[in-house]
Design goal:
single chain, 328 residues, alpha/beta, 434 Repressor (Amino-terminal Domain), Rossmann fold, 3 domains, six-stranded parallel sheet, four-stranded parallel sheet
């Protein structure tokens, strides 16, 4: 098996130069890099990644924890994180916490025990004080989608309040006054932001949240299905329904298809994300498209820039814009 010394002899450089090329620890002239890389290819050199990581105290591995992989937002985000990490020479370990705080605590502990260089975390509801023991020891992590105040670490989120304000305003401008909203978990930041946006829009036409049927969907497909039962049972059905995520929207539409399909063309059904079920039913003129891929790439680059000392560690919050998509 070829060694760094063999590479150096073949390329006509020192072993120190080969090390700088491999570790990108110091600028090296492009012609020299080309000779070293050619020698590596010719000799089929395979670095000992374990020994290398122990010397550098890094593993070139990051962890990603999402709160619900069933949600298309998180599956697309995970795809983006993996692709961005791969492009920059890192591996990714993926964990789904399933909106369960005990699983989140367990997986964070396991990932740091495996010496990941940092974490990207979409936190579940609950007490996150346990994270302090990692942050106090200089662990690096980035929150995505949901923000937890009081922690000195960055976050990448979408502007859900403004998106909800714009969507609800369009519904109200179209003449809708009997609204229902299928809301997510009450104690997470995304739900609070979306409710604030809805409240702002209602205020522009003299309405309040008391004028809206708020139905708890628990961010689950089954919750959306039960919301359909609730709407069907109402003496005066809403003319528009806003779902706070796409899997609850799925469940709501499946419930209507099973129990009251005649209501689908009578109700404008919209919200955050657009699902396969929604595309098949085509019930809405508009929906909110979330930039999950952009969020994933931004969070990954932020974390890796910090790990590679290209960016200062801070508690900055990066906010990306959603988009209202109009259907023809």
């Amino acid at each position: 098996m070829a060694s760094i010394k063999d590479i150096a002899n073949r390329a006509g450089v020192s072993t120190t130069t080969v090390s700088h090329v491999l570790n990108k620890s110091r600028p090296v002239h492009p012609d020299t890099v080309t000779r070293v890389m050619q020698a590596i290819n010719d000799l089929h050199y395979q670095p000992n990644m374990l020994a290398r990581s122990l010397r550098r105290r890094t593993t070139n591995t990051i962890g990603l924890l999402v709160s619900d992989v069933e949600n298309p937002f998180f599956s697309e985000l995970a795809r983006s994180v993996e692709a961005t990490a791969y492009q920059r020479g890192y591996n990714m370990i993926f964990c789904n916490t399933d909106e369960n705080l005990e699983k989140e605590i367990l997986y964070v502990d396991v990932l740091f025990a495996k010496q990941v260089d940092g974490l990207i975390l979409s936190p579940v509801a609950g007490d996150h004080s346990y994270l302090n023991r990692y942050l106090e020891n200089d662990a690096r992590m980035v929150f995505v989608n949901r923000h937890i105040p009081g922690f000195h670490c960055p976050s990448v989120v979408t502007d859900d309040e403004e998106a909800m304000y714009q969507l609800a305003s369009q519904l109200l401008a179209s003449g809708h006054r009997r609204l229902a909203a299928i809301i997510g978990l009450a104690s997470v930041s995304t739900t609070a932001s979306r409710i604030n946006g809805l409240r702002r829009a209602l205020a522009t036409v003299g309405l309040t949240l008391d004028d809206v049927q708020l139905i708890q969907g628990h961010s689950r497909r089954e919750g959306g299905y039960q919301a359909a039962r609730s709407v069907i049972a109402m003496p005066h059905q809403p003319t528009a329904v806003i779902s706070f995520n796409s899997i609850m929207l799925d469940g709501f539409l499946l419930g209507l298809l099973d129990l009251a399909p005649h209501l689908i063309p009578r109700i404008e059904i919209t919200g955050f994300g657009y699902s396969l079920v929604a595309r098949a039913c085509q019930p809405s003129k508009r929906y909110i498209r979330q930039p999950s891929g952009e969020v994933g790439a931004t969070a990954t680059n932020l974390l890796l820039d910090v790990l590679e000392n290209k960016r200062a560690w801070s508690d900055e919050q990066i906010v990306t814009a959603n988009a209202i998509v109009e259907r023809g």
